[in-house]
Structure formats: C-alpha cells, structure tokens
C-alpha cells in the first residue's frame, strides 16, 4: 500500500525526530527491507543476469549484525499476497514491472528501472533462518500485522511504506531510507522517527481522520478524480501553509479535515463527497472501506489446514498457497528475459498444474503472465492430478498431505510393480526426501519433487540419473543433472 505525496509532506512538515535507535524491539517490513538492500547497494547489484545473491547475502548479514550490536531485537514480517480489493492496483504495477523488465533486457533502462531478481526473497528468508532472526509470513500484506505487533511490543515499525504515516503506531515509524545502519554511533543507529500525534498537531487534524485523508488523497484502494479533487480543495488552496507545490493538494485536504475536528470519519467523508457532487451510496462505501483498511483489527485467516497455516507463518511454505486456495489465482512476476520469445514461465507450466491439482483438485486457476512483450493477461489453467488410484489420490489432498505414510528414503522399487504403482511408491519416497530437507516446504523443492515423479530414467542401467527441472519460488526454470 501507499499514500501519494505523504513522504514529501512529512519531510516538509518538520515533524520528524532525530533519534539514536538502540536497546529496543523493532518490527521490520521484510519486503521493503530486501528491496532497499538490493536496489540501494553500492556498487549496484546485478539485475540483468539473474541476480547477485552472494553479495546480497552479505548485505543482509551486515544489516542484522548492526542491529545486534545495538541490542535491537527484530521481528521480520513478510507479505503473503495482495488482497482482492487491490486487483486493479496490482495489475497496473505488473504492467509497469513488465515494461521495466523489457527495458533492462534491452540495456536501455534508466536509474529508476529496478526489477528484483527471482530468488531474492528465498535468499533473504534462508539467511534470516541461518541467523536465527524471528520471522513471520502473513496471509495478506504485512502492514496491518506490523502495526498490531508494534503496539503489542511497544516498539516502532521499520519500513519505507507510506501507509505507516497513517497507521496509529504508538512508538512511531522509522523510515528505512533514514535508518543509517552502516553508521553505528556510540552503540546506536542514527534514525528519524515519525509519530502521528506530532504530525496531526502540526496540521490541526484529529488522528482518527488520517485514514480519511489517505482515502481522499489517494491510496491503493481509492482516489478522487482530478476534477473532483479540484472541487474539494479549491477553497483551501490559499489557506495552505508554506511548502512545495507538490504537496499543496495534500495540505488543502488536511485543511478541509481540520474543520471536522470532533466529528466522525463518516461525517468527514460524506461532506467531502457532497462538496464534489457525489452522493451515491456506492461512492460513500468505497471511501469508507478505503479508510477502514487502517483500522487496527486482527486480519482474517484463510480457510486452510492448520499445518499449512503454521508452515506459511514460519516462512517454510510459499505464500502462493494462500493466493491459489483463496483467490484461485497465481501472479507470475515479470522477469528480465528475451521478450521476442514466449514467457520463461511456460517451461514450468506442467509443474504448476500439479501444484494447482494438490491445492484445488479440478478447479481452474487463473494465471497472470505476459503475453508478447507489452501486456500481462489472465489465462485459465487446468490442474493436473497425480496418475494414481482414487484411494491414493485422497491421501494427497492438502488436508492430509503431511500425514502421508512414507517409505524409507533408501526404499528400492520393485521391478515387478506396474508403472502406476511405481509412480506412487516413487512419490512417497521422494516426499520423504523432500520433508527431510532443511528448507522443509520450500516451493522449489516441491516442484523438483513433482518433476522427479514425472521424469523417465535416461538410462535403464543408471536409474538414479535424471534431468531435473529446478525452479525458484517464482517458478523461473533452470536445468541441472543429478
């Protein structure tokens, strides 16, 4: 999420407090952190040739070493996918990423064209696990959970997401951009702390009207049309405080809200819409729902087996599971590749079909992938079920998949078994190996498992030799021989 113009407005307001951050817990917005570390590194890390994961790993280790030296105890939260309400915003961002990836592939990108390599999130999680840093993967975007956790632990949030200027985080919000972790001074990290109470005093507005400000100013859920915005702020532009013209619109909206101190958010939204000539109930509902996204209440959990929920929260099972089960969709993030050729994701379609089969049975899944070089389009994908008996197929349902009775990892397949039975035994044996691996439920190991199941031996005298299609959690394929 994000509120347009908020970062500049806060900087101009002079309400940021310089602090030396130490001896505290902190809730870290994981995606914001790994994006910042990768994109802001000096020298710049590779984006055109698959990524520089070794250098990135070093940056992650250095960052958390700095926290440890200042007695800062982090909890890192990871996103679990976008909410359905944000489909339009997600679609726009995907198209923007597609164009950036194309420019990078053609070596004509500017300095703002950044595309995160496909394995960055996986490397980030692996390093945190090695460092024994506490992590939690959420079932939607991590913003709301971060605000709730921060208030519970009485500590600030570390992020670059401008929505944290709106959330009521009692101990404030630390911007990653202003968090000088490479310049530890006297056992503390120089940082700038934002508190909503100081900002609202500066602009003379009620704190509980800040979500209304976000909804009217423009966030991922709502935004006034250009002409409507002019109607709302026109009479307040002359009364604005001194500042850059880029924030005059936001300042005027705050001036408007200042007239509703002591009133409810519903009254403020209703008055704003009446002023621009919108009185329909659906308009009121849209902006109130947008403002409600900042209400500090526990987010709902998806309807998934308890063992799946636990593994997702631990970061050991891909968050794609949530999107596929709850929304019947999979978003394939654009890659830097040869755009004159079909999408690289087409090479691993069969693997994803097995993945969908385990999660959805026979229900269709909608994939969002590039078509040609210019557009991201939805495509209906039919799941594939394992070629086993109905009784054996029941054992592979998601509800019971972790209860499957496994054969010993050194089990030898009998040549007398028919082909289908051998596939089932092979599956169980491979599942045993998969579950014993350190990264227990990573999607890459799962897709390798499924491909092993479907791959024929290359040489009957050496049944262990196989070509395996190994994919990252983003399903980007590479080949290797075992």
Automatic annotation (TrEMBL):
Pfam families associated with the record: XPG_I_2, XPG_N
**One Gene Ontology molecular-function label:** nuclease activity
What superkingdom does the record give? Eukaryota
Asteroid domain boundaries: 127-378
Q: Report the transmembrane regions from the record.
A: none
Q: Which residues form the XPG N-terminal domain?
A: 1-97
- Sequence similarity: Belongs to the asteroid family.
Task: State the name under which the record lists this protein.
Answer: Asteroid domain-containing protein
> What species was this sequence derived from?
Poecilia latipinna (sailfin molly)
């Amino acid at each position: 999420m994000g509120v347009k113009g908020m970062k500049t407005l806060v900087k101009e307001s002079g309400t940021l407090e310089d602090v030396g951050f130490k001896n505290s817990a902190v809730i870290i917005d994981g995606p914001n952190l790994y994006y910042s570390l990768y994109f802001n590194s000096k020298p710049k890390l590779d984006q055109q040739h698959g990524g520089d994961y070794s250098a990135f790993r070093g940056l992650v280790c250095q960052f958390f070493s700095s926290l440890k030296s200042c007695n800062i105890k982090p909890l890192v939260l990871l996103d679990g996918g976008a909410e359905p309400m944000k489909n339009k915003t997600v679609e726009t961002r995907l198209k923007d990423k597609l164009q950036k990836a194309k420019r990078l592939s053609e070596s004509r990108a500017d300095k703002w064209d950044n595309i995160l390599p496909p394995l960055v999130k996986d490397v980030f999680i692996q390093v945190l696990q090695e460092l024994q840093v506490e992590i939690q993967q959420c079932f939607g975007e991590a913003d709301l959970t971060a605000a709730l956790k921060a208030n519970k632990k009485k500590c600030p949030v570390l992020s670059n997401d401008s929505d944290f200027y709106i959330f009521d985080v009692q101990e404030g919000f630390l911007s990653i951009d202003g968090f000088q972790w490479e310049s530890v001074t006297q056992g503390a990290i120089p940082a700038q702390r934002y508190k909503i109470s100081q900002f609202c005093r500066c602009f003379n507005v009620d704190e509980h009207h800040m979500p209304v400000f976000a909804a009217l100013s423009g966030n991922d859920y709502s935004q006034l049309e250009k002409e409507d915005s002019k109607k709302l702020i026109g009479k307040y532009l002359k009364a604005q405080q001194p500042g850059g013209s880029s924030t005059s619109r936001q300042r005027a909206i705050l001036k408007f809200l200042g007239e509703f101190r002591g009133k409810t958010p519903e009254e403020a939204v209703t008055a704003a819409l009446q002023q621009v000539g919108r009185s329909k109930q659906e308009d009121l509902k849209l902006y109130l729902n947008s403002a409600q996204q900042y209400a500090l209440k526990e987010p709902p959990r998806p309807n998934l087996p308890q063992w799946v929920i636990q593994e997702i929260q631990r970061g050991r099972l891909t968050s794609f599971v949530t999107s596929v089960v709850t929304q019947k969709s999979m978003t394939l993030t654009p890659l830097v590749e040869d755009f004159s050729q079909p999408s690289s994701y087409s090479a691993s379609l069969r693997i994803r079909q097995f993945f969908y089969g385990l999660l959805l049975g026979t229900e269709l899944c909608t994939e969002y992938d590039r078509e040609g070089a210019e557009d991201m389009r939805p495509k209906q994908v039919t799941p594939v079920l394992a070629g086993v008996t109905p009784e054996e197929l029941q054992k592979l349902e998601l509800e019971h998949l972790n209860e499957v009775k496994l054969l010993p990892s050194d089990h030898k397949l009998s040549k007398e078994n028919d082909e289908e039975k051998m596939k089932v035994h092979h599956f169980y044996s491979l599942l045993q190996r998969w579950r014993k691996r350190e990264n227990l439920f990573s999607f890459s190991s799962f897709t390798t498992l499924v491909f092993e199941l479907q791959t024929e031996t290359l040489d009957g005298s050496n049944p262990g030799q196989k070509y395996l299609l190994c994919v990252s959690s983003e399903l980007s394929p590479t080949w290797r021989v075992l």
